[in-house]
Amino acid sequence: MPPLEHDGGASGGQTSIPSGVHTTARARRAESALSRVRSRLRRRGMGLQVTATAVLVLLTVIASAGIVSAPVWVPPSTFLLVELLGAFLLRLRGTIVLCVAIVVQVVVLIWTGVGGVTPGQELVLAVSIVALVAFTAHRDRLGLQGAPSDLMIVDLRDRLAAHGRIPHLPAGWSVDTAMRSAHAEAFSGDFLVAARAGEHELLEVVLVDVSGKGQGAGVRSLQLSGAFGGLLGLMPREQFLAAANTYLLERSWEEGFATAIHVAVDLTTGRYWVASAGHPPALHLHAGSGLVEIIDTIGAPALGIVRDLPRVERTGRLEHGDALMIYTDGVVEVPGSDLDLGIDRLMGATERVVATRRGGAEAVLDAVRAGDGDDRGLVLVHRD
């Protein structure tokens, strides 16, 4: 194994412009057309929301009439059924209109004394209305709506997994991955994208940790995974992190940063290049000695922080039997504990599990015993 070399970046001289830059105009026209389609769909959706809101408000009026005329068959809790329908069908504005209609009618029933609404029923209705508005407001921030939002979440999660699919590899190479979300939520803020340049036999893998957790981070992960996947096939490897940083800065998100580590492996020679942005260092397992080496790429901040991202790249070679590991900070970070201790724990787990061929990425995560309070992602690149 030759000593690790430090590749300081591209050599001097003029930098060639990637061919994909010439597609910018077409991309903007496509984005403009997509924006117009979204606008039409938005107007249509608003019309459906108005109709659904009107129908549900009418149902509350019918419920009020039933409470007055047939209290045995129509109790005040009937309003809860209408609220449930609203949770499935309405966005925030429609939900507020529906809740106001329910409050007004309950107040009228109490004031006139004809509805037989008890204090306990008043409390239940008040709590349910507050909960409904809070739930709908949270869902609105994610751009999701009602029952279809559950299907949308499943679809987006599947799309995120598809972006991280490892391309077909030649004999003698394999990639093993493990991705776990915090508290087993539907979405993870960690994601993986991979591509293979067949002409140059180069495998590129990028592991990203988006700021935040849960559905909010998952939605941002989906958008970034699609963009980063496109950049991975478009940009020379030396320019990928800089291009990804520029893309993220242009989003102007409130939680607009992400750490990333980019690995490129020559599938013919075994030579690899590792560069990162605010990400924990990669690990190289040497099959001959069974030892795990830290590939130190510390030096660049996370994506989305500074305009000019410094490039810190290391290079080495995977011999037969070696493995290269990249992971997110959820694997090694423990609140109140030193990050170095977490990396040491991961190195020990790698020696026990991978070096002895007892398991792969999932087995390493189990051995590390990282808590489920954060998203966790781990990738192993093996050379047999």
What would you note in describing this structure?
This protein is α+β, with helices and mostly antiparallel strands and 384 residues long. It has 2 domains: 33-141, no CATH class; 153-383, PPM-type phosphatase domain (Phosphatase 2c, domain 1). The protein contains 9 helices and 11 strands. The protein has a 6-stranded antiparallel sheet. The protein has a 5-stranded antiparallel sheet with strand order 2-11-10-7-8. A hairpin with a 6-residue loop joins strand 7 (282-285) and strand 8. It is elongated.
Quick overview:
It contains nine helices and eleven strands.
CATH homologous superfamily grouping of the largest domain: PPM-type phosphatase domain
Main sheet makeup: 6 strands, antiparallel
The Rg value, from CA coordinates, equals 27 Å
Helix/strand order, N-terminal first: EHHHHHEEEHHEEEEEEHHE
The CATH topology annotation of the largest domain reads as Phosphatase 2c, domain 1
Nearest-integer average pLDDT: 82
User: Which CATH architecture of the largest domain would you pick?
Assistant: 4-Layer Sandwich
Parts with pLDDT < 50 across at least 5 consecutive residues: 1-31
Q: Structural class, please? A: alpha+beta
How many helices in DSSP terms?
9
Proportion in β-strands: 15-25%
Per DSSP E runs of 2 or more residues, the count of β-strands stands at 11
CATH class of the largest domain: Alpha Beta
Distance between the termini: 16 Å
Q: Provide the domain count.
A: 2
Task: Provide the spatial order of strands within the biggest beta sheet.
Answer: 1-9-6-5-4-3
**What characteristic shape results from the CA principal axes?**
elongated
Helix content estimate: 40-55%
